[in-house]
Structures are given as C-alpha cells and as structure tokens.
C-alpha cells in the first residue's frame, strides 16, 4: 500500500527515474483513479519507444488477458507514429511488385501486434518455400508445379479459411494466419503468392467483389483458384454465377489480375470492417488514415 501511494505521487509529479518508473507504471495500469490513469498514459507517451522492450516483456509474462490487452494498447499508441513513417517510406519507394507488397502486408501486422518482427515472418515464408522447392524444381509441367504447391499449402500444411469466426481481425493479419493456419481468402491468396514468388511461380491476386480469388498463369490459359475452398480450381462461369447470386452485375475487371496497391487497400478495408464490428474506434480511425495514405499513392 505504501509502495502504491509513493508510485501514485511520483506519477502525478512526474519525477520518477526511468527503470523503476516503468515498473511502477505497469503496477498502476489498473488503478481506478482517473488522475493516475491520465498520468500513466502521459508518462508512457513521454518515455516513447524506450519503454517498449520492458512493456513487451511484461506482456509476454502476464497471465491476465485484460492486462495483456492494456499493455498491448499502450505499446500500440507509443509505436503508431513510427509505423506510419515506415509505411510512408515504403509507399514512396512504390508498392508495385510482389516483394514490396509482402513488405507492406507484414508491416500491416503491427497494427495488431506492435512488436512483431517482420523479418521473423520473412524467414517463415522462406522456410515454407524451401520445404517444397525441390519438388517444384524437378517437375517440368507448369500446371503440375501449381498443383504441387496448392496441395502442399492446403492439404499438407492445412491452411484453410476460417468460416466460423470470419470477421476476427486475426484472420486479416499475415503473421496470425501463418501461426493459426487459417484466415480470409485474401490472406490465404497472399500466402500462396508470396511463396510462389520465391519459387518463380506465376500466382496473382484477383480482386473479385465479396470473395478474393487466386489466378495462375500458364502459356495458354489463366486458371482461377478459390483459396477459401482448399485451393479448388473454379471456372469463370462459376464466378459470374456467384456474383449474380450475391446481387453484383459481373464485369470483366472483376476477374482480372489486381494491382499490388488495390490488394493492400482491400486488406486495410478488411481490418477496418473487423475492428468496426468490435467497436475498436481508435484502430478504425488509424487504419482509415493509413488507407488514405495508400490511396493517395495509387
């Protein structure tokens, strides 16, 4: 009790030393006093990213879901500025090829997990590609290469669509899709595209309304693939019927290869939709700002 009173006084007066200060601030995260909460939030803002490593350590060690979520939000608020800066730099370089799109999609994961290291997931994608690379290399048929990769991703590794909790934000972040092995159609498509890039396989995204699709190019045809249905090959007629059934008049551009910026914009919109459903207004506003930044570059 004495320790808490001393910590409260220090938060209000703003005179704490950095190391002990962070520990006391974490201790006070659940304090009901609004003045203390204001002081805690202000002080974390002043400390900035130097506070993140210890906050991350406390978060990983905590067994309390509410406390973990509170710490995650504090880390998010501290790091959102630098995240915007990284996106701005990436946009200036141009998000116009699969490699740059992968960088943007992995960077986007930090809206859900602010301390995620993108290089860790680049290595995970590299590892998945290496597992199948020899089978791909020794198969002469371009279409057989496609089938081998789809079989590996959707059958052996068991990546799948999450139909039970479709709008869960975790289905829209590539790091969580890789860890959980389930997600939205667009994220499953991007997983295949990113692995396909490493194996020189011509997979592309198709920004079809309602349901994102995959496309694979051979010399004489374009093959449409439904990633949400285990990598099943579908016909153009099936896609037209699906659109009409859902009240959308099909147009040729609905089934054409999509640009990297259009894919990224759709990923951001999916997150806005998911966070709107869960009333996380701060993240909705931040993602709308990011979407505006992306569309200005388009």
Q: If you had to describe this structure to a student in words, what would you say it looks like?
A:
- The chain has a four-stranded antiparallel β-sheet with strand order 3-4-5-6.
- The protein has 13 helices and six strands.
- The protein has helices spanning 2-13, 18-27, 34-47, 52-61, 65-93, 98-108, 118-137, 142-156, 174-180, 185-198, 236-245, 260-277, 281-297, and strands at 160-161, 182-183, 203-206, 213-217, 222-226, 232-234.
- The protein folds into two domains: 2-84, Leucine-rich Repeat Variant (Alpha Horseshoe); 95-297.
- The model is unreliable at 1-17 (pLDDT under 50).
- The protein is α+β, with helices and mostly antiparallel strands.
- Strand 5 and strand 6 (232-234) form a beta hairpin.
- Helix 1 crosses helix 2.
Uncertain segments are: 1-17
How would you describe the shape?
elongated
> Approximately how much beta-strand content do the residues carry?
5-15%
Number of helical elements: 13
Percent helix among the residues?
A: 55-70%
Overall mean pLDDT stands at 89
Helix-strand makeup class:
alpha+beta
- The main sheet orders its strands as 3-4-5-6
- Radius of gyration, in Å, reads 22 Å
How do the SSEs run, as a string of H and E?
HHHHHHHHEHEHEEEEHHH
